Amino acid sequence: MASSSNEPVVRTQGLTKRFGNLVAVDDLNLEIHRGQVFGFLGPNGAGKTTTIGMMLGLIRPTAGSVEMFGLDVRENLNEVLPRVGAVLDNPSLYPYLSGRDNLRIMARLSGEVTDERIEQSLEAVGLLPRAEDKFQNYSLGMKQRLAVAAALLGDPELLILDEPTKGLDPAGMKEIRDLFVGLGKEGKTIFISSHLLHEVEQVCDHVAIIKGGRLIAQGVMSDLLKRGGMLELRVTDPDRAMELLRRESWVSSLVRDGELLLVGAGQEHAPEISALLAKNEIFISEMRARESTLEGFFLEVTESADG
Ligand SMILES: Nc1ncnc2c1ncn2[C@@H]1O[C@H](COP(=O)(O)OP(=O)(O)OP(=O)(O)O)[C@@H](O)[C@H]1O
Ligand SMILES: [Mg+2]
User: Fold this and answer.
1) Which CATH number does 10-208 carry?
2) CB of 47 shorter than 6 A to ligand 1
């Protein structure tokens, strides 16, 4: 069945992964919609790579599910994966071959990529002028861009990138950022993990933040960063409250900090929130308007666990 255009490109429901006693990803509910450039922000060890592994069917979830294009990933890998391009931690490319020859090999492996598409992919990442140079002579930024070109070969609807700017200097980071902004403008859905707020902020229009495997914030980037329009709630069941509020169109962002929820909504929505939660037997012990930017919060979350 063809997927309808307004259903999420990716939806995770209750996605959980345990390694022994360690809960690497904890009941994660994400929705990524068509055309979004979605930042997946979290400090080292937050569970980003594990989440991406589960999205791509490389890691079996302990509980929960991932749907892409409306299909359960594990049950439809052969249908889903050709529609996705991924750049993971260590792209394995041949050092002695040129950038173009590396792509030719991959194209041959996949069997469905034309020469023209190879050239388009090289062009998209700005490597056409250096396509004949050996991979080993590329700068780190160029190597990373070639990995993106490889992911673009199949003209994927969704690009998933795990820390694409890791190890790059500021100029290399900017090259990659510009590339994603460009791809985003072409309407591709892009999912980028990062532990740098600054980076996500410059590229992404939507963001989810995880820490310790748990989702602690999600929303429209500009709303999360802008000053004001937040309600701070203390509730009896923050998980469920977050779940319910997430579905309301007037909620622009959600942040959870223990029992506290920060809801991106104006004070005029306070009665609606009370009613919605009460109807679901969730009770509010405290509610107040908060006027502050979330930047400090972001920095705290993303910088506290470096290294
Ligand atoms: N195969 C594994 N076995 C045991 N523990 C694992 C395994 N893979 C990941 N972990 C643990 O799960 C947690 C989440 O790891 P993950 O690699 O998903 O984090 P991350 O957000 O990608 O971090 P980073 O920014 O360092 O890449 C960490 O505590 C990690 O040590
Ligand atoms: Mg990682």
Assistant:
1) 3.40.50.300
2) yes
